[in-house]
Description:
Number of helices of chain A: 3
Oligomer: heterodimer
Largest sheet of chain A: none
Number of strands of chain A: 0
Number of strands of chain B: 2
Structural class of chain A: mainly alpha
Shape of chain B: globular
Helix content of chain A: over 70%
Distance between the termini of chain B: 28 Å
Number of helices of chain B: 19
Structural class of chain B: mainly alpha
Radius of gyration of chain A: 17 Å
Strand order of the largest sheet of chain B: 1-2
Strand content of chain A: under 5%
CATH architecture of chain A: Orthogonal Bundle
Number of domains of chain B: 1
Shape of chain A: elongated
Low-confidence stretches of chain B: none
Amino acid sequence: MNITIDYFLILSAFMLGAGMYGFFTRRNTLAILISIELILNAADINFAAFNRLCQTGIEGYVFTLFSIAISAAETAIAIAVMINIYRMLKNNYVDELDTLKW
Amino acid sequence: MDYSQFLNMAPELSLLAVILILFVADLFMCTDRKSGRGILNTPLPVILLTVHTLLCVAPLIANCQYSVVNGEAFGGMYVSSAMALVVKAVLNVGTIIVFLTAHEWLKQPEMANKQGEYYILTLFTLLGMYFMISAGHFLMFFIGLELASVPMTALIAYSKRSQESAEAAAKYILTALFSSGLMLYGISLIYGTTGTLYFDKVAPMLADGSMVTLAALVLFIGGIGFKISLVPFHLWTADAYQGAPTAVTSYLSVISKGAAAFVLFVVLTKVFAPVIEQANVLFFWIIVFSITLANIFAVRQNNLKRFMAFSAISQAGYLVLGVMGATPQGLTAIVYYLLVYMAANLGVFLIISITEQRSGKILISDYDGYYRTNPKLAFLMTLCLFSLAGIPPFAGFFSKFFMFMAAFKAGFVVLVLIALVNTVISLYYYLLIVKAMYIKPNDNPIAPFKSDGYTRTGLALCIAGVVLIGIISWFYAYIDQFAFGL
């Protein structure tokens, strides 16, 4: 069977959709963070697949490497913020984050 | 390898040098050490940043041959231009004023061992904005954007014991990650259709205007609109502004917004030029909703920082007005608007900050009778608010005028009309604060206090900007001469 670019694009589009759905429906901040990772990885799959199957050079691979490193840094600081919240509230549900509104 | 290319990125290198010096100085001079002289809390960072700013603007003042500052590094990933240098200088001045704002807050005993972190984190976000402004490639742009937003989260969560601060940081980082993830997906679509990520090479390949291109455009606008806090992407703004420490809020409200607006202009003109018609349709509605919704929400606020957040969303709508049509005149209007908005907004935040430090009060109703106890500060705040609203003798009027003129010449008459109507509405809610300070009676007003020298210096700079920038007419013409060929 010949694996074409379509397979990768469908996979990444599904991951993007699942990530967005999770971002809006999940109530646990860590689950939201996992949903965001799905979105970021969908973009990474796109870059790698486009570079492998459609384009020449290594620009897409390099971008993937950088974006993985950056998303790791972002996740680290997001988890630091959540640990800080957990210490104050003893849970990490977004429903509890309601001091600031309107 | 040709090392002389690093000379083209002199502003970045000198800012990095400033950060490293502060980093080492933090080890030895912090006030919680016995040998510490407290020089780190404000004199040293301000002096270093002033020297750095002078180095930045030197090539612009020394000779009017702008070609000397045009150059590139890393094979075109980094591009420097005269206009980028002007924007960097403006951001520098803003950061200096923010540091002057932060002095009183950092002086508290419980902040003694955290002073250095504040300066270093702030300057790292500034470095990220530098790279974002000068990007010639989507990778450099993305790294700059993240370098600007990741330390910003740490800054918002700076008050470790405050639940509001932590909550604001959580809301900021989650929405920031979401929007940057969507933007990354958009960039990957651009890469898929064109095979390159250099700004000037992408444009000719996008000419077909297919669905994929439009999807990439929308996702990109979503990502950058989050940074500028335009309306469908603005929901984090009010919470982050209210929860963050005041010195951080003032930084967030002007500096990161200005850098992102400039980048938006550059990317739209360079990369999305073939689909600029569709982009204009999008921006028409984004601007209308930004200005109108923010104005409506601002009227019903009682927390002054939250009020300023909605004011900032509305001002961001005006700022993006210059993007419409993508003319050189629009670019000049953006930079000029940014400068004027910075002077007025930072002035307001200086007064909010010093009042909060001295009395702990932050609500608009607390400001009732402010004029009777602190007449000078009340008067200066009124000047800044008038400039934000765009009342004629002050700079805010001229910046709005140039912005409207640029959009009008580009043919967006209806949009200019809607923006004009909204200026009147904004005048109403800015005057609500003036009314609270001057007219409303209060049995228990904020006690009279003396502000420190740093706050006074910052206020003097802001008021000079508010009063003089509009009147000194060559200022606009000076910026205008750099706005070509972008």
